[in-house]
Design a protein that fits this description.
The chain is mostly helical. The chain contains two helices and no strands.
């Protein structure tokens, strides 16, 4: 496994963590659509990257 694979795995784990947090906060429900999930992920990531750039 190269560095690129490791970085992708780390990013994937981070995204999964964001989705799990959203689910636990009640932001995701059992009947959420893929579109809703992606839109929610985009909002979470925008906040993450804004905080990361400061």
């Amino acid at each position: 496994m190269g560095q690129k694979d490791s970085e992708t795995e780390t990013e994937t784990e981070h995204f999964k963590h964001i989705l799990i947090q959203a689910y636990h906060k009640g932001e995701l429900s059992a009947n959420i659509t893929a579109k809703d999930m992606i839109e929610g992920l985009i909002v979470q990531l925008q906040c993450f990257f804004k905080a990361d750039n400061k």
